[in-house]
Amino acid sequence: MRLAWKPLIGAALLGAAATLGACTGGGYGRSGVAVGYNSGWGNPYWGWYDNYYYPGTGAYVYDRYRHRRAWNDVQRGYWLQRRNDWRGERRWRNNWRDFRGRPGIRRPR
C-alpha cells in the first residue's frame, strides 16, 4: 500500500498553523510578534495630555518649551492607565517622537 504524502503534509501544516495561531495573544499586539521599538496597539504610553507632554518614563511632564514639572494626581493616573493598557514592548523608554511644541501646532522647518 502506498501512502499519499501530499494530504499528510497538508494536514501537518494545518495543525502547525492552528497551534501557532493559538499563541498570538501574548500581549504584543494582534500578531503576537513585536517588531521594532514602538510596535504594539492601543493608546501609546507617551504623548500629550492636558497641554503637557509625557515621554513615557519618570514622574515628570513637560510643557511645549520642555520645562519639566512634576505630574499631578490626575496626570499620573492617566499615564499609568495608558501604560497599563499598552500592548507592545514592555521595556519603558523615553519617546520624544511626538513632541513638536504644543499639540496641533507645527514647528517651522
How do the strands and helices of this protein lay out in sequence?
Layout: H1 5-21, E1 47-49, E2 52-54, E3 60-62, E4 68-70, H2 73-85
Antiparallel strand pairs: 1-2, 3-4
Q: Overview of this structure, please?
A:
The chain has 109 residues and is of the alpha+beta class. It has helices at residues 5-21, 73-85, and strands at 47-49, 52-54, 60-62, 68-70. The strands form 2 sheets. A two-stranded antiparallel ribbon has the order 1-2. A two-stranded antiparallel ribbon has the order 3-4. Strand 3 and strand 4 form a beta hairpin. The longest helix is centred in the N-terminal third of the chain and has 17 residues, at 5-21. The N and C termini lie far apart (75 Å).
Total DSSP E strands: 4
Strand share of the residues? 5-15%
Low-confidence stretches: 18-38
How are the strands of the biggest sheet laid out side by side?
1-2
Radius of gyration: 22 Å
Task: Based on Cα principal axes, name the global outline.
Answer: elongated
Terminal Cα span: 75 Å
Largest sheet: 2 strands, antiparallel
What count of helical segments does DSSP give?
2
- The averaged pLDDT comes out at 72
- What kind of oligomer do you see? single chain
Helix/strand-derived class? alpha+beta
H-E string: HEEEEH
Helical residues, percent: 25-40%
